[in-house]
Write a structure and sequence with these properties.
Layout: E1 2-5, E2 12-15, H1 25-38, E3 40-43, H2 50-60, E4 63-64, E5 71-72, E6 75-83, E7 108-115, E8 123-127, H3 128-133, H4 137-144, E9 147-150, H5 161-168, E10 170-171, E11 173-175, E12 182-184, E13 191-194, H6 199-212, E14 219-222, E15 229-233, E16 237-241, E17 250-257
Parallel strand pairs: 2-3
Antiparallel strand pairs: 1-2, 3-15, 4-17, 5-6, 6-17, 7-15, 7-17, 8-14, 8-16, 9-10, 9-13, 11-12
């Protein structure tokens, strides 16, 4: 297994791996260590069946049903991320971490590239470890004590605090359960306010954070190749799939891995 970093902040390319072969615990432990260090890894040159993709995902974590897309026949935990030639809008086309409004957001998302446009369709990633660490000590101290109100589709804040907490269920900053590192855990797709603040009061600080947390120096860019298997740590990474390939088809097979309640 060869590992090459994609950017100083995060991301790594892994070669010399065949996921269609048997997978042992030693290999998975080594790969998970690389993943935890680099936050997103892409394994190049794979040719795997849905069953093999699911087996690999199950070795990394616990696959889960994704509630917003229908799974493949016989493989309900594998969903298609598809943009057709005549479609203008792509799936998840905004900076975000996946479903952070859930009580237990996903640990990770795993994608297998099946069909790609000749140009475009890259995915950007941003390290929320770096985003947190590069804030001033004073601002980190403020954010450490705040609670985020998150919602699917950025619907308006619920009327009572208990409803808001039920809807969001996470702090603005979370501590990674495996690495112990702190990361920002708000995003423009789902975060609507700070708990106890109005949306208007929250807007200025949230807008600053949203801009800061995707600074170029925190990012890496994945240029997909057919056969790539990429997965990222949803607990400390945001991602943004570029929508710059109109007129072409793009298909990836997705598996979501169960996560824990943010702390």
């Amino acid at each position: 297994m060869k590992v090459v970093a994609l950017a100083p902040a995060m991301g790594a390319e892994v070669t010399g791996v065949d996921l269609s072969a048997s997978i042992d615990k030693v290999f998975i432990d080594e790969l998970r260590a690389v993943w935890l260090e680099h936050q997103m890894i892409v394994i190049r040159g794979q040719d795997i069946t849905p069953a093999q993709q699911l087996a690999f995902a199950a070795a990394i974590g616990e696959p889960d049903i994704y509630p917003f897309l229908t799974g493949l026949d016989g493989f309900p935990m594998i969903t298609e991320v598809l943009k057709k030639e005549d479609e203008k809008v792509n799936f998840g086309g905004i900076w975000h971490s996946d479903t952070t409004y859930q009580k237990c957001p996903p640990m990770a998302t795993l994608l297998y590239a099946k069909e790609l446009p000749p140009l475009g369709g890259d995915t950007l990633f941003a390290s929320q470890y770096d985003a947190y660490n590069q804030l001033s000590d004073s601002l980190r101290a403020v954010l450490d004590g705040l609670w985020a109100v998150n919602a699917a589709g950025k619907k308006r804040v619920s009327s009572t605090r208990s409803e808001r907490i039920k809807d969001s269920g996470s702090g603005v900053v979370r501590t990674h359960p495996e690495t112990g590192r702190k990361a920002l855990f708000v995003n423009p797709a789902h975060t609507v306010a700070f708990d106890g603040w109005s949306e208007e009061e929250s807007r200025g600080l949230l807008d600053y954070i949203f801009t800061h947390q995707i600074s170029p120096e925190f990012q890496c860019r994945l240029k997909w190749q057919v056969g790539d298997v990429a997965f990222w740590d949803n607990r400390c990474v945001q991602h943004y799939p570029l929508n710059d390939y109109h007129g072409y088809r793009r298909l990836l097979h997705r598996i979501t891995l169960k996560g824990d309640e943010p702390r």
